[in-house]
Amino acid sequence: MTPTSFTWRFKNILRKYGLPDNLSVHSLRHTAASLMIAGGTDPATVAGLLGHSQVSTTLDIYTHAFDKNKRAASEKLQEALEV
Q1: Taking the complete model, does pTM exceed 0.85, yes or no?
Q2: pLDDT at position 83, please?
Q3: 57-67: pLDDT as tens digits
Q4: How many CB atoms lie within 10 A of CB 1?
Q5: Is the residue at 4 inside a domain?
Q6: How large a percentage of the chain has pLDDT more than 70?
Q7: Is residue 10 in a domain?
Q8: How many helices (H) and strands (E) does the chain have?
Q9: Enclosing domain of residue 42
Q10: What's the Cα-to-Cα distance from 64 to each of 7, 8, 16, 69, rounded to whole Å?
Q11: Contact predicate 20/31, CB 8 Å
């Protein structure tokens, strides 16, 4: 399958299911990585799945996905300290 035909088929799927036409395969990759990290998957595993040779690349791109984990850690610390 050529990149052009893949994109054409992908856009047809988006239209068929009423999804935003500005989505791309790259946006799906970004969403999957963000959800994995936010869900607690370790960054090294995510980096491997994405094909990043350095975990730091993954961390630089997807740091925002850690916000949920930061909040949860903060709440646990507050509970432990009874603040």
Answers
A1: no
A2: 59
A3: 998 888 776 77
A4: 8
A5: no
A6: 95
A7: no
A8: 5, 0
A9: 22-81
A10: 28, 31, 31, 10
A11: no
